[in-house]
Amino acid sequence: MKSLSSRPSREGEPAVMRVELRPAPFDAVAEVRDYRASGGISGKSGATSIFIGTMRDFNEGEEVRNMTLEHYPGMTEKHLEEICKQAENRWAVHDILVLHRTGDIEVGEDIVLVATWAAHRGDAIDATRFIIEDLKHRAPFWKKEAVSEGERWVDRNTSGYLSAD
Amino acid sequence: MSIIKVKFFARIREEMGRAEDQLDFRHGLKVSDVWNWASGDDEIPEAMLVAVNMEHVKGDPELKEGDEVAFFPPVTGG
């Protein structure tokens, strides 16, 4: 699934968004490098903010062997695009790249990449944080983990801070 | 199109034993009526999330002909 669109950012310049669901493994760092090299990044972007989520080998005190990520085809893409549009309306970002895995995922594989580019760090960092938090709490994805006793659905995402879990 | 398309995801899909279904539309049909038809429960469980035509909805909105209703548990992506 691919989506590209251009619309004015707060600075009045066209912004680019790319949202993709990936059924196969990807290297998030390489994806950022390739996106920059593809010319998708405006020369005006002085700040790049990147969040990468990677599959852990433990959750809720148990070893996790692998997992499956279910999604709602159509709604998931639509929701991610909507989150990006909201971020673009709130912060002066030039580019947004969001990749998310689906299907069977092994320990150590990247699950999600959120990268934003802006003239200044505040807009980039805040937009990235906003996108990943909304994605975690509202985008239709569901994790099912394989643990020693079998499989289990993950009931909820954590708050994002170890101290608050 | 005088039907309502119904989808279930994740744990709810497994509990319902199917990923999708459909029922005949009638005027005044609400989300809670669809859940009652599908599950036999009178009320939608508190933690359940509901989308109509791929948009999150709150409460118990009335449906239109051809709507797609989805029931799913709290999301866990990222």
Reported for the largest beta sheet of chain B, the result is: 5 strands, mixed
Strand order of the largest sheet of chain A: 1-2-7-9-3
Task: Give the quaternary arrangement of the chains.
Answer: heterodimer
Provide the gyration radius of chain A in Å.
Answer: 16 Å
Q: How does the overall form of chain B come out from the CA principal axes? A: globular
Please give the count of helices of chain B: 2
Instruction: Profile the largest sheet of chain A.
Output: 5 strands, mixed
How many β-strand stretches of chain A?
Answer: 11
| Distance linking N and C termini of chain B | 36 Å
| Uncertain residue segments of chain A | 1-10
CATH architecture of chain A: Alpha-Beta Complex
Please count the beta strands of chain B (DSSP E, at least 2 residues each): 5
Structural class of chain B: alpha+beta
Fourth CATH level, the homologous superfamily of chain B = Beta-grasp domain
Class of chain A, according to the CATH hierarchy?
A: Alpha Beta
Radius of gyration of chain B, in angstroms, nearest whole number: 12 Å
Annotation field: number of helices of chain A: 3
Which whole number gives the mean pLDDT of chain A?
89
**SSE succession of chain A:** EEHEEEEHEEEHEE
Q: Please indicate the count of domains of chain B.
A: 1
How much helix, percentage-wise, in residues of chain B? 10-25%
